[in-house]
Amino acid sequence: MKALILVGGIEALKATGVTEVVLAINYQPELGIKISCSQETEPLGTAGPLALARDKLIDDSGEPFFVLNSDVICEYPLKQMIEFHKSHGGEASIMVTKVDEPSKYGVAVLEETAGQVEKFVEKPKTLLVTKSMPTSIEKEIFPKIAAEKKLYAMLLPGFWMDIGQPRDYITGLRLYLDSLRNRSSSKLASGSNIVGNVIVDETAKISEGCLIGPDVAIGPDCIVEPGVRLSRCTVMRGVRIKKHACISHSIIGWHSSVGQWARVENMTILGEDVHVCDEIYSNGGVVLPHKEIKSNILKPEIVM
């Protein structure tokens, strides 16, 4: 079984029996699953990558394939979805969820018994569906399949979150960690210095006297020095958090560092290789990669 995916959900696909992934970027991590890259030379919308990867996705087996978005996080019930798809005999299946603001995403109108999609309620732009121009799979392809009564929808169990924006990413992290807790996952950290749900890579080093959590993710090869306070934040690979720094509601990019007694909060986003000096305060700064921050960021702004 194959899948077209932009970035996320690879582990869930592997657990479902997928043996090959078409990844639409130039990064190929070692995950025990074959990954091919399908790179767009120009933006082609959400349906364009399907056309570009046609030869990789379609073969003589007749097996269906998954299409996943990279900016969505959920529990990925892919085994249930493939069973649902094979049961109804239609052309395509989509996963749907209930949201508080349906106008932001559009609405699928379903026949309740079988889950057949009757129509979509939204305001799409009129575009021709071709390989050479941007095409929306949600606004152009799915409505056509639904009109032919060949599109079915499965209600997603568990949580779902669009994490395309930093603030939504932090919310998505909380939902993901809550899901791990509900499943009594051994992936969650424990100890006297842990508050709430926290996940720490096994290669990260956490010093004594820290207080970590709730809703914190610490990546590989990170170093957290004594007295550090972390809450509702993500710390990417190779980050060093120095003594008595305090980070909340923020994202710390790869191989960055936060100095002693620094305070980073209010959706501060540090790009790769950003170094915050000692005793600096950042109130919502968005810092591009390879920068050194020597003065306070008193209000949300972009540092280029």
Automatic annotation (TrEMBL):
<dbReference type="Pfam" id="PF00483">
    <property type="entry name" value="NTP_transferase"/>
</dbReference>
<dbReference type="InterPro" id="IPR005835">
    <property type="entry name" value="NTP_transferase_dom"/>
</dbReference>
<feature type="domain" description="Mannose-1-phosphate guanyltransferase C-terminal">
    <location>
        <begin position="194"/>
        <end position="303"/>
    </location>
</feature>
<dbReference type="InterPro" id="IPR056729">
    <property type="entry name" value="GMPPB_C"/>
</dbReference>
<dbReference type="InterPro" id="IPR050486">
    <property type="entry name" value="Mannose-1P_guanyltransferase"/>
</dbReference>
<dbReference type="InterPro" id="IPR029044">
    <property type="entry name" value="Nucleotide-diphossugar_trans"/>
</dbReference>
<comment type="similarity">
    <text>Belongs to the transferase hexapeptide repeat family.</text>
</comment>
<dbReference type="GO" id="GO:0004475">
    <property type="term" value="F:mannose-1-phosphate guanylyltransferase (GTP) activity"/>
</dbReference>
<dbReference type="GO" id="GO:0009298">
    <property type="term" value="P:GDP-mannose biosynthetic process"/>
</dbReference>
<dbReference type="Pfam" id="PF25087">
    <property type="entry name" value="GMPPB_C"/>
</dbReference>
<feature type="domain" description="Nucleotidyl transferase">
    <location>
        <begin position="25"/>
        <end position="126"/>
    </location>
</feature>
<protein>
    <submittedName>
        <fullName>Mannose-1-phosphate guanyltransferase</fullName>
    </submittedName>
</protein>
<dbReference type="GO" id="GO:0005737">
    <property type="term" value="C:cytoplasm"/>
</dbReference>
